[in-house]
# Entry
Amino acid sequence: MTDLVLLVLVMAGATYLLRALPLVALRERIENPWLLSFLHYVPFAVLTAMTVPAILTATNAVVSGTVALLVAILVALRGRSLMTVALAAAAAVLVTEAVLALL
Amino acid sequence: MAQVDGEAREAVRDSFPIALGYFTVALAFGLYAIGAGVPAAAAGLVSLTNLSSSGQFAGITIFADGGTWLQVALGVALVNLRYVLMGVSLGQRLDPVTPTWQRLVMAAGITDEIYALGMARPRVTFANYAASMVLPIAGWTGGTLVGAAVGEVLPDALRSAFGVLLYAMFVAIVVPAARASGKVLAVVLAAAALSAALSFLPALAVGWRIIIVTVVVCAVAATVLPVPSEEGS
# Structure
C-alpha cells in the first residue's frame, strides 16, 4: 500500500517537474545543437529500448511475441494507425497461440 | 470575455478526438498495470497525475521489476524529457504576464497531442489551453480504470494477446519515423541491439538498462548524426 502511494507520488513528481519548470522558469529558446539532437532522438531510443526485447516475453510464448513484433512492424510500415497496429499484433498473438496449441 | 468563452468552447471540441484516442490507449495501459500487479485505483491515480503513456509504462515496468525509487524517477523523467522542450516553446507563445499559477495548471497538460493542438492555434492562452486539457485527462483516466477492471476478469489467452498492445503502439510510433529518416533508423537499430545485448546481463535491472541504452545511443547519435535545427524541432 505504502509502495503504491510512493509509486504515484514519485511518478507524478518526476513528470510534473519536467513540465512545470521550463514553463515557469525558462523563457529562452534552447539553441545548443547537440542538446537539440539528443532530445530529438530520445523518444525513438527509449521506446525501442522498452520494446526490445521485452515484447518477446510479454506473451505466453516467445514465438507469439516474436510474431507480434514482426506483424506490428509490417503493419506500421504500411502506415496504419496506432490502434490498427496494436490490434493486429494482438490478433497475431491469439492466432499464433491457437496454432501452437494444436501442434 | 465572449471571445475567450468561444475559444474555450472550440478548444474543448477540438480536443475530443484526442480524448477518444487517449481512452483506447489507456485501456491498454490499464491492462498492463493489472498484469504488472498494480491495482486499478493506483493505475487510475498514476494516469490522472502523469498523463503520459510511455512515461507511465516505463515507471510501472521498473516498479514491477523491483527497481529502486531513483530508477523509477529517472526512468520516468528520461522518457518524458521531451516535455522540457515543449514546456520551453509553449512558454514562449504565452503572454509574458501570464501568472505563475496559470502556468502551473497548463504544465499538467503538456502532452504530445495537447501541446500540438495548442501550438496549432493562432494564440495560446490559459483559457484555451486549459479547456483543451479537460476531456483528454478524463479519457485517459477513465480508459485506465476500464482497462484495469477488464484486465482483472480477462481469460488467459486474451491477456496474453493484450500484453503486446502497448509495445505494438510503440512500434507504430517508431517505425514511420525510422522509415522517413535514416538517422532515426540508425538510432532505433542501435537501441534495439544494445538493449537486447544488455538484457543478457541478469544483474542489470530493466530500469537502468532503458536509461543506459537511451543516454548512450542518443549521446552518440547527437555527436555523429546531429539533426539540423528545423528537423529537430
Notes: Chain B has two domains: 2-155, 181-232.
